[in-house]
Design brief:
Low-confidence stretches: none
CATH class of the largest domain: Alpha Beta
Mean pLDDT: 96
Shape: globular
Bound molecules: zinc ion
Distance between the termini: 40 Å
Structural class: alpha+beta
Oligomer: single chain
Number of helices: 10
CATH topology of the largest domain: Aminopeptidase
Largest sheet: 8 strands, mixed
Strand content: 25-35%
Helix content: 25-40%
Strand order of the largest sheet: 1-2-12-3-13-16-14-15
């Protein structure tokens, strides 16, 4: 990852854009895509597209979801306190004490998650886990009208007000690693493919929307319909198993720094998995395998049965502290994931047959 790409990644991670409100992040992604890719476009669901490679060649869709989890204002009380619900899945424990940046029609409004001081908490309350309904956000408003005057409306989205930090050993932390990393990887694959000889395949990167609320498939569903790809690679995150409390017996073993994680399982195309694993071995890219006996809880679920079926694989970057204000990944794993998918795409020819016979 050179300085230019790292700056792009940081910009992509820091822009606030939860599910359904992805436009600011999608704009950053498309602006970068415009500098080296073709057919940069956006659809009605907010999905962004960019392509490289041979027109008329086998179509490969690379999907990384550009949304992030967030909060939404559900009520403003007489005292001007904001009540919120989650956009996507939160553990409310990680929200206690955080600052929240709301995106209002008059610009950003920052508040703090309120909490009863420890001196006032009864002994039996201390034992209980905090629920989202116990929390409120204080933006310093005098009352409801004051909050409204600053632009706050019910339905305003917000994110935890944090920025990228660099940790040691090539690790970074950000609230939007899930899954701007995926959106970054698919575009960096295109950047890699745009340098040197054009691949025989037509490779389209898609920054998909609404994955975090995607029980009906999110933006990936219409984007896969539109592209009608032969192959799809979904880039997301999985649980790094070198953080305390993560069970290897269920997750397999995927340390930070151990390279991309290849899902293998019932909704993953077997020939895609084997081809990806062979590519990694040929290129000398370390990888680990994650068993996936059901659906994947990623964009792949919305893609693999689209139209007449799409041979789909899922590649994940090991991640600590998923769905928290400080999701950690290794830049080495991110780079290795880009290199693997780029090598895979370069190797695809029109005659390659992914029908399991
Ligand atoms: Zn997620």
């Amino acid at each position: 990852m050179d300085d230019h790409s790292f700056t792009f990644l940081k910009n992509l991670l820091d822009v606030a854009a939860p599910s359904g409100f992805e436009t600011p992040a999608a704009r950053v992604w498309r602006a970068e895509a415009e500098t080296f890719a073709a057919d940069v476009d956006v659809d009605v669901a907010g999905n962004s597209y960019a392509s490289v490679g041979t027109e008329g060649g086998p179509r490969i869709m690379l999907a990384g979801h550009v949304d992030e989890i967030g909060l939404m204002v559900t009520h403003v009380d007489d005292d001007g306190m904001l009540y919120v619900d989650g956009i996507g899945g939160w553990d409310p424990q990680v929200l206690v004490g955080q600052r929240i940046r709301f995106l209002t029609r008059k610009g950003d409004v920052v508040g703090v998650v309120g909490k009863k001081p420890i001196h006032l908490i009864k002994a039996e309350e201390k034992e209980k886990a905090v629920k989202l309904t116990d929390l409120w956000v204080d933006i310093g408003a005098k009352d409801r009208d004051d909050a409204a005057g600053r632009g706050v409306r019910v339905g305003d989205p917000g994110v935890v007000d944090t920025h990228v930090v660099e940790l040691g050993n090539r690790m970074i932390a950000s609230r939007a690693v899930d899954n701007r990393i995926g959106a970054y990887v698919v575009l960096e694959v295109l950047r890699t493919l745009s340098q040197g000889q054009a691949p025989a395949a037509r490779v389209t990167a898609v920054a998909t929307t609404q994955e975090e609320i995607g029980y009906s498939g999110g933006g990936a569903r219409p984007s896969a319909y539109r592209l009608d790809p032969r192959l799809a690679v979904v880039v997301d995150l999985t649980f790094a198993t070198d953080a305390p409390g993560v069970e290897k017996k269920q997750q397999g073993e995927h340390k930070i720094g151990s390279g991309p994680v290849l899902s293998r399982g019932s909704s993953i195309h077997p020939l895609m998995f084997e081809r990806m694993a062979e590519t990694a071995e040929r290129e000398g890219i370390p990888y680990t395998i994650q068993g996936s006996p059901r659906l994947t809880s990623t964009d792949a679920d919305a893609i693999y049965l689209q139209r007449h079926g799409v041979a789909t694989s899922v590649i994940s970057v090991p991640n600590r502290y998923m769905h928290s204000p400080n999701e950690v990944v290794s830049l080495d794993d991110v780079d290795a994931t880009v290199a693997l998918i780029a090598a895979f795409c370069r190797g695809i020819r029109d005659e390659d047959d992914f029908i399991p016979r």
